[in-house]
Amino acid sequence: MPQPPAPSHTRFLLTPTPWACAALLLCSTAALAQEATSRIARVTVYPGVAAVERVAKVAAGARSLTIACLPASLDAQSLQIQADSGVRVGEFRVLTEDRDVAAACASPLDGRIRELEDQIATLKAEAGGLQLVEQYLKSVATGPSADEATPVRTPAPAQIGATADVLRKTGQDAKARSHQLLRRQEALELSLKPLLAERDRVASQRTRVVSVTVNLAAEREGELRLNYQVRGPGWQPSYRAMLDSAKASVQIERLALVAQNSGEDWSNVQLLLSTGQPQRATQGRPPQSWTLDVAPPPQLAIPSAAMAPMAMPAPAAPAPRAMERRQAEEMPSFDVSTTDKGFATEFAVPQRISVPSNGQRITLALGTHQAPARLLVRTAPGVEEAAYLVADLAPPPGVWPAGSVGLYRDGTYVGTGRLDFSALPAATPGEEPRTSLSFGRDELVLVRAEPAQQKTGSTGLTGSRTERQTRRSYQIENRHKTAIDLQVLHAAPVSRNEKIEVESHYTPAPAEQAWNSTPGTIAWRQNLAAGASASFAAEHWVRYPKDIQLLERP
Q: What is the distance between the alpha carbons of residues 161 and 41, in angstroms, rounded to a whole number?
């Protein structure tokens, strides 16, 4: 009795020994080889690379298994193979070949495309038949032409009305049918167009494919898991920061923009996002030796261009950071569980996700974090006569990659900024470092900068030095109904040469003279009551010899 055919997703091949009988049914020893389709079960996405886990069914008694049509971006060195108990895994082979050569890698869209093309051809044939009917009816209605030899019998006067009704109804039905066929053809062509585009996209991304053949011994049915890395996928962090000024708190919503062009679609997979970066260097560069030697005397002889041909400089090896930037440029950014793993944070999306391999960006919500904030109004009158509402935040636990942030103040969108907890300014002794988010202008705080007053004269016993005096003053008014925490920033001159002397006086005394670890940035800080005003002034004396030219960068 003939054996039933195997399922469509698995093909079994019986390989006889060379000296066995001519018919397969007479073989006593056979090795069972399996070429099976597989599915992507889980994907862990890092910036610029993804770790893919594929699962394939292994039949009992199988001696080998081939997983074909894998993307050419597969990193063979990262390949790992595991199997259930009862399935022993031996050596494996990796083969890369052109997609046109691999018959098993034909696009699954080909069948649907051929079906639509056949339907369109049928409609065109029927439309062509209706055109013949219309031409015949026209010849009956108008009579034969001069070059036609066969005469058309003219109906009797009593039959003219009935004949006209038949011609009218038949012609009307033919026209209506032609219109319906045209509409159906347009609908089919509209459905065919995206299928053709998708097939071309897959074919262009998979000009070369990879197949992995694993030798195994399956005592019973089980699953084989293939883990590998592919280049191209990545995710970018994005955030939304919503400030509640009444409660002095900020809710930060984590978002992720996921995109991939690895050459294989991720359909209904378990998706994990990780802040780890496996493509970065695993060790830092050691410092080079610092040597001192006497420079040789300069050589005055200049070789002639005719005598010494110009040598092409050797291309310099790109620096590691430049390579990282280049890889980042070549890269195509729920109730999510978050796991902090010491050196990285991992996000597991609960539902299964589909990410096509066309660079399309998919946005995922990764949860929210509620953080208390210290609100202050910051202004730099010497730069701009405006004040901005700022929230100081402590860094949350875990790894938070830098990214763009949409800013909302009391439910109103105010603009975009950048959230970067890794670039925290130096904190004052006894306080933890904090980062600042600016939530737009505060129109109820009026800022006015008086014109700068400047005097220049001579000093010293012989008048050999130049002295320049500069005075800046600012007025701040609080029109809020409540008090505000005010911070006023001012740039003071900083000497870079011992010949230049700088002396400064401030009214009132500033809270910091190197705000944000920046020398020369003065910060006044005070609580300004509702309806109150405050004045701030700074005087600077700059003295330097008259015989030097002052290089000033305000």
A: 73
Segment 105-163, tens digit of pLDDT: 765 566 677 788 888 888 888 888 878 777 777 776 666 555 555 555 556 666 666 76
Q: Tokens 């910060």 map to which residue?
A: 523
SS3 (DSSP) at 531: coil
CB 465 within 8 A of CB 547: no
pTM for the model stands at: 0.63
DSSP H helices in 28-108: none
How many whole angstroms separate alpha carbon 482 and alpha carbon 475? 19
Whether residue 174 contacts residue 134, with contact meaning beta carbons closer than 8 Å, is answered with yes
Helix, strand or coil, per DSSP, at residue 524 = strand
Find out whether 441 and 412 touch, Cβ atoms under 8 Å.
no
DSSP sequence for 98-142: ETTT-GGG--THHHHHHHHHHHHHHHHHHHHHHHHHHHHHHHHHH
Find residue 209's DSSP bridge partners. Answer: 71, 97
Those residues whose C-beta lies under 8 Å from the C-beta of residue 353, and which sit 6 or more positions away, are 258, 266, 268, 269, 270, 271, 362, 364
Per-residue model confidence (pLDDT) at position 189 = 84
DSSP 3-state assignment of 221?
A: coil
Q: How many C-beta atoms lie closer than 10 Å to residue 521's C-beta?
A: 18
* pLDDT < 50 stretches in the chain: 1-31, 303-334
Pair 419, 400: CB distance under 8 Å:
yes
